[in-house]
Sequence to fold (114 residues):
Amino acid sequence: MPDEPAATLWKKYLILTQEMKKFLDRQDIDMTLSLMDQRVAIFDKLQALERDDFRDTDAGKALLAELQPVDLAVQSAARGWLNKSRRQNTAVRAYGRPDFSGFSGSGHIFNKKL
Fold:
């Protein structure tokens, strides 16, 4: 649709945000990222509109009120996933990181009894 009304775009934005939350909860990051790309495209269309009077209507205010907690939940879940991924990545790198002498940190434990 070349010129979708703002109400339709905002509804799509809300649905995509809700779906992102569902897939983040399932740890399906690929689908979440795909939905995020779609949501960015919808947001770009919203910004390109000459007028967005929908936000000032009662229906628009209700939709935005419904969107806000879902959006915050998505941000929180995404932040949690990112922190978990960073911790896992750091742990993996700590075991496999070669030092400057060419030895890796894993498997080289000093044994005082020898």
